[in-house]
């Protein structure tokens, strides 16, 4: 066997070179001029001497050794050596797929006439008028978007176990028969329990908060289950596994990694999988690769079409990983291109105004405050003042934990603008937040001098010596006449500070001289919305603020166009919010505690569990929880409900009545608004707390503890996984938002920061920002490319320019 395979002198030489290459650590140094040149020569010679079939197996067209990563080289070399010494391999060597040349595209069926990648998905056979809107709910409208609609995960049929072999704590796939499925109470809430069995035994599976599954699992139905096995009361149990009803033809999976797609009402796993398979096979090969070939080669990246195919239907875990790497690189690279270009441009513009720093005024402002600035606030204010006194416009991100006092710092800068005869604007994502700012700032200023409140929306401080200061509120729900009047004043320059919502960026709003723009909770706005506000002036100074702590490395990369300031300490004397993780058995006690606090005149939030399937299902679950709490648990109290399917006006109305103390308890899906200040709310009860990331839990917790009363955060988790428990323990003892963010990154990766809410940036579906190396590579390549072709005008960048426009457009609109 061994000797028969090596059939020619050229093969023997190649084996020697591979051996040498191995001993040198796969640095491509075994032959002068690199292995690629040698291989090309070898191919030619092999062909001449009749060794060509094995030769083409080793290096198919487009193969480039130089473009492989070291791991890939090693893999390739080992496979090749094996195939050369042990005879023809039983399977094709997958080198082709690791190649960084043009995509390893599978044979493409023809595309239907008149249909393009940008056609609506209903143009595809099998996508009917009822399926289209369902995909639309998942954000998928065109065929191209369908290709980028990636599976949440893959069920690994290769890791299939019998029930007797199930291991605790490991992800496994199981094919079993349903003996019994019923709706049960799990930790006080409705869920589903099923007993399933195979020829080696039975096991219990449970799904929290999904009572409707009981009806779908008929006795004797065959199920594929995929998930981790836990232990409950000494017995193994599958906790909320992925599931699928099995039909006979499924078992003959040619493919061991079966995609599991995000679903919504009316879309079922089998349908989606079938559709996707068809679409990917026809359309993925039609994608032009927007990455320039040199970038792809330097970074050893798979071609686009192949990567899309492998991301959906991977041939192996290794291929899946390569695909992810390519697609993740794309996401980061496209972000970097946008961000770096903006920074370059911005750097070259001239600010509309250079502020003169009036120390006397700042001192006076400082003295009027009922507190002293923390050292962190002082430092950040200095950074801001130094920016606004420059010729270049400020472009700064201010991060600070909830309650760290960002508003006052921004206020100091806004007042300074007024003193310089320049207008300022402060934009917040909701009317309540805008009003809150308006009230806070008038409160602060009224200590400086008496105000003349002309209306609830307009206040002037005439004795703020020696400057007059007029501020106004502009929101969508104001009367048209009021809006017009305020707009007129802003246009004439009679208003110095305009505070508002999206209303500020309407066409009808003009400023006479807008020189400072502040955006609060900036992640709630799209890139385009922020730039729309910026464009109300000519290169105004811009300060964007966020309470979502993002680790520094990450922030610098994602917000590479901004300079960064951090308020990393809370004002002294804040009473820590007591955080407790409770056992399910303590749920009644928790309710008792809520009731007692309400008896003392306080208020409480209840946050419902995160349900990934859809906002609709999430809303339904919240409605059910609201009903249960108001009818069974707190029938005598006043409860309100907040969820994502409500209109903006209804949301505002509910939040307002909660703020005005017309409600005792606000039951909410995880949409509960950021930044809202209800000082009288002292309990934050979070259901399904184990399913949230630490940063998100921290945000929820920040909704309480905003007044003088001691506040509490109660965490309920029905049956947390190992990681879930880990997180709950950390949030119980840590109150530093940045530490929590780092922990989140460590435990869950960056998805936490960049969920659907992260509307300012193109979607990150594949990128994991813990992958710092890839990120740096993308950043470096972006800068290199822009240095050569800032406008992306070169013909070889045509597709890339299109892609940049596409993702940034989508990112902006989402806000
Ligand atoms: P955030 O950073 O969450 O926007 P705010 O600016 O709303 O925080 O401040 C939260 C509260 O803390 C406000 O009531 C504010 O007046 C108060 N505050 C701000 N700075 C200080 C400080 N240095 N000392 C004491 N209280 C402060
Ligand atoms: Mg704030």
Radius of gyration: 30 Å
User: What integer is the average pLDDT?
Assistant: 82
Largest β sheet strand count, sense and barrel closure: 9 strands, mixed
General form:
globular
Terminal Cα separation, in Å? 64 Å
- Helical element count? 28
- Ligand species: adenosine-5'-diphosphate, magnesium ion
- Which residues sit in consecutive blocks of at least 5 with pLDDT less than 50? 1-6, 88-103, 750-760, 811-815
Total number of β-strand segments?
Answer: 24
What class, by secondary structure content? Answer: alpha/beta
The percentage of residues in β strands lies in 15-25%
Give the strand line-up of the largest sheet.
12-13-14-15-11-16-17-10-18
Question: What is the share of helical residues?
Answer: 40-55%
Question: Can you characterise this structure?
Answer:
This protein is α/β, with parallel strands linked by helices and 815 residues long. It has 28 helices and 24 strands. Strands 12-13-14-15-11-16-17-10-18 form a 9-stranded mixed sheet, with helices on both faces. A hairpin with a 2-residue loop joins strand 4 (189-198) and strand 5 (201-207). Helix 2 packs antiparallel against helix 5 (70-85) and helix 13 (317-347) crosses helix 28. Magnesium ion is lined by residues 406-407, 520, 675.
What are its keywords?
alpha/beta, disordered C terminus, binds magnesium ion, binds adenosine-5'-diphosphate, disordered N terminus, globular
Furnish the topology, listing elements before pairings:
Elements (H helix, E strand, L loop, with lengths): L1 H4 L3 H15 L11 H14 L3 H7 L11 H16 L9 H4 L32 H7 L5 H5 L5 E4 L3 E2 L9 E16 L2 E10 L2 E7 L5 H4 L5 E11 L2 E5 L2 E4 L11 E4 L8 H15 L9 H6 L5 H9 L4 H31 L11 H10 L6 H14 L6 E6 L5 H14 L3 E5 L3 H16 L5 E4 L2 E4 L7 E6 L5 H13 L4 E4 L13 E6 L7 H8 L6 E6 L5 H7 L4 E5 L10 E5 L4 H13 L3 E5 L7 H19 L5 E4 L5 H12 L5 E4 L12 E6 L7 H8 L10 E5 L5 H12 L3 H12 L23 H17 L9 H17 L1
Parallel strand pairs: 2-3, 5-7, 10-17, 10-18, 11-15, 11-16, 14-15, 16-17, 19-24, 20-22, 20-23, 21-22, 23-24
Antiparallel strand pairs: 1-9, 3-4, 3-6, 4-5, 6-7, 6-8, 12-13, 13-14
Helix pairs in contact: 2-5, 3-4, 12-13, 13-27, 13-28, 15-16
The structure holds adenosine-5'-diphosphate and magnesium ion.
């Amino acid at each position: 066997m061994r000797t028969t395979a090596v059939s020619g002198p050229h093969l023997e030489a190649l084996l020697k070179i591979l051996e040498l290459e191995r001993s040198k650590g796969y640095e491509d140094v075994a032959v002068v001029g690199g292995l690629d040149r040698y291989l090309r020569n070898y191919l030619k010679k092999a062909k001449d001497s009749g060794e060509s079939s094995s030769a083409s197996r080793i290096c198919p067209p487009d193969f480039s050794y130089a473009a492989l990563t070291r791991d890939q080289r090693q893999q390739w070399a080992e496979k090749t050596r094996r195939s050369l010494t042990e005879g023809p391999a039983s399977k094709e060597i997958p080198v082709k797929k690791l190649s960084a040349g043009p995509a390893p595209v599978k044979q493409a069926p023809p595309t239907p006439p008149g249909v393009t990648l940008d056609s609506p998905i209903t143009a595809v056979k099998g996508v009917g008028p009822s399926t289209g809107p369902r995909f639309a709910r998942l954000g998928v409208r065109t065929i191209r978007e369908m290709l980028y609609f990636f599976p949440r995960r893959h069920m690994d049929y290769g890791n299939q176990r019998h029930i007797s072999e199930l291991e605790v704590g490991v992800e496994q796939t199981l094919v079993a028969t349903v003996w019994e499925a019923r709706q049960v109470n799990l930790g006080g809430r409705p869920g589903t329990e099923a007993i399933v069995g195979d020829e080696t035994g039975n096991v219990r599976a449970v799904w929290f908060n999904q009572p409707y599954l009981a009806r779908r699992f008929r006795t004797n139905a065959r199920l594929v289950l995929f998930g981790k096995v836990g232990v409950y009361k000494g017995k193994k149990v599958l906790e909320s596994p992925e599931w699928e009803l099995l039909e006979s033809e499924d078992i003959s999976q040619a493919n061991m990694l079966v995609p599991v797609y995000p679903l919504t009402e009316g879309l079922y796993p089998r349908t989606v999988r079938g559709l996707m398979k068809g679409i990917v096979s026809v359309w993925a090969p039609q994608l032009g690769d927007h990455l320039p070939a040199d970038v792809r080669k330097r970074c050893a990246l798979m071609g686009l079409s192949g990567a899309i195919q492998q991301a959906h239907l991977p041939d192996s875990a290794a291929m899946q990983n390569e695909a992810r790497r390519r697609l993740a690189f794309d996401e980061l690279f496209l972000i970097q291109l946008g961000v770096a270009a903006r920074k370059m441009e911005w750097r070259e513009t001239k600010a509309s105004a250079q502020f003169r720093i009036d120390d006397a005024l700042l001192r006076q402002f400082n003295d009027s405050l009922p507190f002293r600035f923390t050292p962190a606030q002082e430092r950040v204010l200095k950074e801001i003042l130094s920016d606004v006194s420059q010729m270049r416009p400020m472009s700064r991100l201010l991060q600070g934990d909830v309650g760290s006092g960002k508003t006052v710092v921004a206020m100091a800068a806004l007042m300074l603008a007024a003193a310089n005869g320049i207008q300022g604007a402060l934009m917040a994502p909701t009317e309540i937040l805008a009003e809150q700012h308006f009230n806070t700032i008038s409160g602060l200023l009224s200590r400086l001098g008496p105000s003349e409140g002309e209306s609830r929306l307009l206040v002037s401080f005439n004795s703020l010596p020696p400057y007059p200061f007029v501020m106004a509120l502009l929101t969508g729900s104001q009367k048209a006449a009021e809006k017009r009047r305020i707009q007129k004043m802003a246009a004439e320059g009679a208003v110095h500070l305009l505070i508002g919502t999206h209303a500020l960026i309407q066409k009808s709003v003009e400023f006479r001289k807008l020189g400072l723009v502040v955006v609060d909770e900036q992640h709630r706005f799209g890139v385009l919305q922020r730039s729309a506000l910026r464009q109300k002036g000519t290169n105004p100074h811009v300060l964007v603020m966020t309470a979502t702590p993002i680790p520094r490395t990450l922030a610098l990369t994602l917000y590479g166009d901004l300079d960064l300031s951090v308020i990393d300490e809370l004002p002294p004397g804040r009473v820590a919010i007591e955080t407790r993780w409770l056992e399910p058995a303590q749920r009644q006690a928790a309710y008792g505690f809520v009731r007692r606090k309400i008896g003392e005149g306080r208020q409480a939030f209840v946050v419902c569990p995160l349900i990934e399937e859809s906002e609709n299902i999430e809303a339904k679950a919240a409605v059910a929880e609201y009903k249960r709490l108001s009818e069974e648990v707190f029938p005598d109290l006043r409860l309100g409900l907040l969820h994502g399917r409500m209109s903006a006006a209804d949301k505002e109305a509910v939040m307002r009545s909660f703020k005005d103390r017309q409600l005792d308890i606000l039951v909410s899906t995880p949409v509960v608004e950021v930044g809202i200040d209800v000082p009288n709310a002292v309990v934050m009860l979070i259901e399904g707390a184990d399913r949230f990331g630490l940063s998100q839990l921290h945000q929820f917790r920040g909704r309480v503890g905003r007044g003088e009363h001691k506040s509490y955060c109660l965490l309920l988790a029905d049956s947390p996984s190992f990681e879930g428990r880990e997180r709950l323990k950390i949030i119980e003892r840590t109150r530093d938002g940045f530490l929590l963010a780092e922990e989140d990154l460590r435990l869950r990766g960056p998805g936490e920061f960049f969920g659907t809410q992260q509307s300012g940036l193109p979607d990150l579906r594949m990128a994991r920002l813990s992958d710092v190396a890839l990120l740096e590579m993308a950043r470096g390549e972006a800068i290199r490319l822009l240095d050569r072709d800032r406008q992306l005008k070169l013909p070889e960048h045509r597709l890339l320019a299109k892609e940049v426009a596409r993702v940034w457009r989508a990112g902006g609109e989402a806000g």
